[in-house]
Write a structure and sequence with these properties.
Protein name: DNA-binding protein
CATH superfamily of the largest domain: DksA, coiled-coil domain
Keywords: DNA-binding, Metal-binding, Zinc, Zinc-finger
Order of helices and strands: HHHHH
GO molecular function, one term: DNA binding
CATH topology of the largest domain: Four Helix Bundle (Hemerythrin (Met), subunit A)
Radius of gyration: 29 Å
Distance between the termini: 97 Å
Bound molecules: zinc ion
Organism: Candidatus Jettenia caeni
InterPro entries: DnaK_N, Znf_C4-type_bac, Znf_DskA_TraR, Znf_DskA_TraR_CS
CATH class of the largest domain: Mainly Alpha
Shape: flat
Largest sheet: none
Length: 162
């Protein structure tokens, strides 16, 4: 990538960074106001994230993107921006324009997603087999419960007779 283009990407990244920073700041401020300024430490923020607070979840996403932007800026400074971390080939400019903090070229990204998908399918299959196994035993349990129920009914019947 030429110096001029690098400078361009750096500006795009810095712009994005500033917008995100403002956004994150706004969100935290709004959140703090909504909680009467009680939100002061990271533990409270973490617990609201764990409780699924949407505002916080979005803020966390923003922070994650900020980190990716920071990394991309560091790569520009280190002189290996726009090179695929996996195969070492240059990442296409169109891709970098779309995702300025991309670390993988298109084919490596696809490969990664395929692997992720395969992992997921194997996991689902495993869970399915596990559930099938346990459903068989729970079926047996139901039969035992039915038998037990009949026994109780027989007992009650006998009781009434006496
Ligand atoms: Zn690659």
């Amino acid at each position: 990538m030429q110096k001029k283009e690098l400078k361009q990407m750096e500006n795009i990244l810095l712009n994005k960074k500033n917008i995100l920073l403002r956004e994150v700041e706004e969100r935290f401020k709004k959140y703090r106001d909504a909680n009467n300024g009680k939100l002061t430490d990271i533990a409270e923020i973490a617990s609201s994230v764990l409780n699924g607070d949407l505002e916080m979840l979005v803020a966390v996403e923003d922070v994650r993107e900020l980190k990716q932007i920071e990394d991309a800026l560091a790569r520009i400074r280190a002189g290996h921006y726009g090179v695929c971390e996996q195969c070492g080939q240059p990442i296409k400019k169109a891709r970098l324009k779309a995702i300025p903090f991309a670390t993988l070229c298109v084919s490596c990204k696809e490969e990664e997603e395929r692997e992720y998908y395969n992992e997921k399918t194997t996991q689902v299959k495993y869970e399915w087999e596990e559930n099938m196994g346990s459903s068989e035993t729970s079926e047996l349990d139901d039969i035992d419960k039915r038998k037990l129920g009949n026994k109780i009914m027989e007992f009650e019947y006998d009781d009434n007779k006496n």
